[in-house]
Specification:
The structure holds two protein chains of two kinds.
Chain A: H1 2-29, H2 34-39, H3 45-55, H4 61-74, H5 87-122, H6 127-141, H7 144-158, H8 170-175, H9 185-192, H10 195-232, H11 235-242, H12 247-281, H13 290-299, H14 303-331, H15 334-337
Chain B: H1 2-6, H2 8-30, H3 34-37, H4 65-101, H5 103-117, H6 121-132, H7 136-162, H8 166-173, H9 178-186, H10 191-214, H11 226-233, H12 242-269
Helix pairs in contact in B: 2-4, 2-12, 4-5, 4-7, 4-9, 4-10, 4-12, 5-7, 6-7, 7-10, 8-9, 10-11, 10-12, 11-12
Classes of the chains: A mainly alpha, B mainly alpha.
């Protein structure tokens, strides 16, 4: 177990090192005109030369890299070329709305995906299985940005049931003082007992959360189905059947539990995946989160901002992976022996 | 094959894929207004709703969306094939070398794949695409760079088992040079599962491609690329909903078709479990 732990931690360090090299090259070296970009289109040659010195672009690459790396560790992630604000500060400001969205969509993915997966495994190759597979494959096939627009057309334009975008009604926001605590309006509203705030926030969350959940719903359904069908084919299940243990108990107690490990993995990783999925849909829903920030940075070719978000998502991915592996090894000691 | 086609979902997938390939192949013949997909504009019929002349309506420049969607199929299929091909060219030899030789080479190549696999593929493609600058061919390269480690991993696993087989030992004993062993003896015996995997990945590749174009990184105007069409059309979606609906439907059906087929294929080849998510 000790060696496994060390090996796994070492791997995470190697990977993060690679991430830093990659983003360094992408943000500082590849853009030919980083200094020109910094001072803007109307700058003089002298201003560009000053910017080169300010940004340290005249130093040898290893020196630049070390400075970049130590900045990453110290929390200095560079400044946005567009706003000239520190990237890490921007990320901190835009992250909470995205997290709120992520958490809700992950809950949705579990609430829909796990029952569908169980249904599939229970009725393998029969109609319920085919239907739930169709739902799962549809979930991973539908372009999220298109689904977002279709949902807006249906629920905002045609049915007039839900708002088209934003986090709160604009009139409500003007008339209402919004408490600032966690950064999630739903949580803040619950903590403050402000039900009007919770209601307005939830109404705005529904469409983006459903859109973002489509992909993980598909993943979770498939994972639950495949791990459960595998377990259901094993001898101890046959033995349980032969002993006359009711099907419900077999499914719920013997087959679902071993399927939860892989499902948790998929869910954890799909959360990190959804974080990049927000790039595609937050702009559509005018959701003031990290995804819209990143999409805006892409259009402006704001490399420090793009690579800041990239570093963040990569760290989240590595850390989630690490946690999932460690939990697995703890639950199933055989893994650490491999 | 028989088992594959007995499943209604796989069959539906196959039908969709065949229709897509036909549309891509026959676009110049089928499109009622081929010049609308090739840069021409038609200002007299801006935002014309779908009818007998313009089956899917027209866009902000009066161009026939049906014709553009058909030509879009060509772009998606062609770019997707090239992107996966490039990923294979990068990933397969590296994986075969890692699996055959083992040791330090193996360790180095595998740690590099670890780094690439530590990004969600969409994010990696976006970051590389942003670095290379917006264009369709850069998107293709970005996707290939995001995808190759999967194939390296897969073929490495196959190669480690094939290298123990008697014919490889025989070649080694006969003094065949190591690289010749890799390319003549190991590769041909490990490539099949990779080809299957690559064809199953096609749906995700098309989706990633459209996503990058939607973000403004991929194809540029006036290319009739599906993701780009949605990005342009979304400004007008309240008054001209057909503008975003049909290109999106084309992406969705294409990805769905390949995923349905791929899922069926996976089920037939490996009935026990799903190895990798879409």
């Amino acid at each position: 177990m000790r060696t496994f732990l060390l090996r796994r931690l070492l791997l995470a360090v190697v990977v993060l090192f690679g991430v830093s090299v990659f983003t360094f090259l992408a943000a500082r070296v590849v853009p030919a005109d980083a200094a020109a970009k910094w001072v803007g289109p109307k700058a003089t040659a002298a201003q560009i030369a000053r910017a080169r010195i300010y940004l340290g672009l005249n130093d040898p690459l290893p020196v630049q890299y070390l400075r970049y790396l130590s900045g990453l560790v110290r929390g200095d992630w560079g400044e946005s070329v567009v706003t000239h604000q520190p990237v890490l500060g921007d990320i901190k400001a835009y992250l909470p709305p995205s997290l709120e969205l992520l958490v809700l969509s992950s809950l949705l993915a579990m609430a829909v995906g796990i029952p569908l997966g169980i249904l599939s495994a229970r009725y393998q190759d029969r109609i319920p299985d085919q239907l739930s597979r169709l739902v799962a494959i549809t979930g991973v096939s539908v372009p999220s940005f298109w689904l977002a627009l279709l949902l807006q057309l249906l629920f905002f334009q045609k049915l007039k049931l839900l708002p088209v975008g934003g986090r709160l009604d604009s009139v409500f926001r003007l008339a209402h003082s919004v408490p600032v605590m966690t950064g999630s309006y739903v949580l803040d509203g619950l903590l403050a007992g402000d039900w009007a705030l919770v209601g307005s926030a939830l109404k705005h969350l529904i469409l983006p959360a459903v859109t973002l959940a489509a992909y993980p719903i598909g993943l979770v359904t498939r994972m639950v189905r495949s791990s459960m069908t595998e377990v259901l084919g094993e001898d101890h299940i046959r033995a349980a059947r032969a002993m006359g243990i009711p099907n419900r108990t077999i499914l719920g107690r013997y087959a679902l539990k071993p399927a939860m490990g892989p499902t948790a993995t998929v869910l954890a990783l799909s959360m990190a995946y959804s974080l990049s999925g927000t790039f595609l849909i937050e702009a559509v829903f005018a959701w003031p989160g990290l995804g819209r920030y990143a999409a805006g940075a892409l259009i402006a070719a704001d490399y420090p901002a793009i690579m800041g978000v990239t570093v963040l998502v990569a760290i989240a991915y590595v850390v989630l992976n690490l946690i999932v592996d460690l939990v697995h090894a703890w639950l199933d000691p055989r893994i650490s022996l491999r | 094959m028989k088992r594959l086609l007995k499943n209604p979902l796989s069959l539906a997938g196959l039908v969709i894929v065949v229709i897509l390939l036909l549309a891509a192949l026959l676009a110049p013949v089928l499109a009622p207004f081929p010049d609308h997909a090739l840069g021409g504009v038609n200002p007299v019929a801006r935002f014309h709703p779908p009818d007998g002349t313009y089956w899917m309506g027209t866009d902000d420049l009066g161009r026939d969306i049906f014709s553009r969607v058909l030509y879009g199929a060509r772009i998606s299929v062609w770019t997707g094939v090239l992107a996966i091909g490039l990923a294979l060219v990068l990933g397969v030899p590296l994986g075969a070398v890692a699996g055959t030789f083992g040791g330090a080479v193996d360790e180095l190549i595998m740690r590099i794949t670890d780094i690439f696999l530590s990004f969600p593929p969409l994010l990696l493609a976006i970051a590389i695409g942003a670095m290379l600058g917006p264009s369709l061919s850069n998107t293709m390269i970005a996707i290939a760079l995001a995808w190759w480690p999967w194939y390296t991993r897969l073929i490495r696993g196959e190669a480690t088992s094939v290298r123990e087989r008697p014919f490889v030992e025989a070649a080694r004993a006969a003094g065949v040079r190591p690289l010749v062993i890799v390319f003549r003896h190991i590769l041909p015996n490990t490539i099949a599962p990779v080809i299957v995997q690559a064809s199953m990945d096609f749906g995700s590749v098309v989706l990633t491609l459209a996503s990058l174009s939607f973000l403004g990184l991929g194809a540029q105007v006036p290319t009739p690329e599906w993701g780009l069409m949605i990005n342009t059309g979304r400004t007008y979606f309240v008054n001209a909903p057909w503008y975003v609906t049909y290109p999106g439907l084309a992406i969705f059906l294409t990805v769905l078709g390949f995923n349905l087929l791929g899922d069926g294929l996976r089920e037939v080849l490996d009935p026990k479990g799903v190895k990798r998510s879409a």
